[in-house]
Specification:
The chain is α/β, with parallel strands linked by helices. It contains 10 helices and 13 strands. The chain has an 8-stranded mixed beta sheet with strand order 1-2-3-4-5-6-7-8. A 5-stranded mixed beta sheet has the order 9-10-11-12-13, with no helix packed on it. Strand 7, helix 6 and strand 8 form a beta-alpha-beta unit. Helix 8 packs across helix 10. The radius of gyration is 20 Å and the shape is globular. The structure holds zinc ion (ZN).
Length: about 350
């Protein structure tokens, strides 16, 4: 949690008259219990995540019945600030609605963490995007009775996954974890919910997103709590990641940020999959960085520079100081994405792009 973020969260606490019928006014939500770590983290060569050591805990409360779960810091090299992807849990007499399901290896721990505050049955899961830290425990929670929702593209990505970055075929999916209730993004209805649930005193909107982090993204808005789960097209730990093989793009991430500027008000709490909770204003410097890097990479590529040359140009240097988790791997991935996107970018077919294999 940055100091700036803390000040913003305190700002919500004193805003006691808003919204008129919302739960946010009751006792000053959101309440942050365990902020994500800041690093720097290092892991020895050959390190493997010790899943048995990772705790899944309630790290923030967005309203009396809308909690966030997240994992321990400093153990998972994919997400050292807090293992896995955030899970949101809306609970009450109408049952539990979950946003994402965490990594497969911590499925039971995630369920036990939910049971610390509710015995209500798990009824609904919505997946914000396909990555394993967000969908890994889908099959486990389907067996608890959940109906899984997502964009149709996510379902297709899961059923027929793109090859891995090294060109090797991806493993077959666990069919029990594949979403069965689907909807699609359409530019003509941008920003409108595909599904709305009225349950547990809350109104929840599943809003399909344009291809951005992947081609199957959904953001989830909780109207009364004034919270939007914005998943991974924005991140503030490590450099941006557009999963182009699964249909993502940096240009789509710019569109996603612009849509959030319209959907959110100045007080809306935005919940990224990783890093710290933010307000919409905090997305703007990130947007400016995306525009800047795309322009610089485009110029270099137009001059005939190779990917190796562009990586060597160290274009992210001006941003390293303000980017937590700025590992070499994270910056190289970002610059490689930009390089691939500015010229000969493959189109999306069935939620995926035929990206060039890299060694
Ligand atoms: Zn994630």
């Amino acid at each position: 949690m940055t100091m700036r973020g803390l000040v913003l969260l305190v700002g919500v606490a004193v805003f006691a008259t808003w919204p008129a019928h919302g739960v946010a006014q009751e006792t000053g939500y959101p309440i942050e219990l365990v902020p994500p770590g800041k690093g720097t983290y290092t892991f020895p060569p050959g390190y493997e995540t010790p899943w048995e050591k990772i705790r899944i805990m309630v790290t923030a409360k967005m309203s009396p019945n809308l909690f966030i779960l997240h994992g321990s810091e400093a153990l998972d090299p994919a997400h050292p600030d807090a293992s896995g992807g955030r899970v949101m849990v809306l609970f009450g007499p109408d049952g539990v609605l979950m946003v994402d399901t965490e990594n497969r290896q911590v499925a039971e721990k995630t369920l036990q963490a939910i049971k610390t505050f509710t015995n209500a049955p798990i009824k609904m899961v919505v997946n914000t995007h396909i990555h394993g830290d967000h969908t890994g425990a889908n099959a486990f929670f389907a067996r608890q009775g959940a109906v899984i929702f997502s964009q149709e593209n996510l379902r297709i990505e899961m059923l027929r996954p793109p090859p891995r970055a090294n060109g090797q075929p991806a493993p077959a999916p666990d069919m029990a974890g594949v979403p069965i209730a689907t909807y699609s993004y359409a530019a003509s209805t941008i920003g409108q919910p595909a599904v709305t649930f009225n349950m547990n005193g809350e109104t929840v909107d599943f809003i399909p997103m344009m291809p951005s982090h992947t081609a199957g993204d959904t953001i989830v808005r909780f109207r009364k709590a004034n919270v939007i789960y914005i998943e991974d097209f924005y991140r503030n730990f490590g450099y941006p990641f557009a999963d182009q093989a699964n249909g993502g793009s940096i240009r789509g991430m710019l569109e996603a940020i612009d849509l959030i500027q319209k959907l959110a008000d100045a007080k809306t709490t935005l919940v990224p999959g990783h890093g710290t909770l933010v307000r919409k204003q905090e997305l703007l410097p990130y947007r400016a960085m995306l525009v800047d890097i795309m322009a610089k990479v485009k110029t270099l590529r137009a001059q005939g520079k190779s990917l190796k040359d562009v990586l060597a140009a160290n274009l992210t240097a001006p941003y390293d100081k303000t980017t937590l988790g700025d590992t070499q791997q994270s910056k190289d991935r970002f610059i490689t994405e930009a390089y691939d996107e500015v010229s000969d970018f493959p189109p999306i077919v069935d939620g995926k792009r035929a990206m060039p294999a890299r060694p």
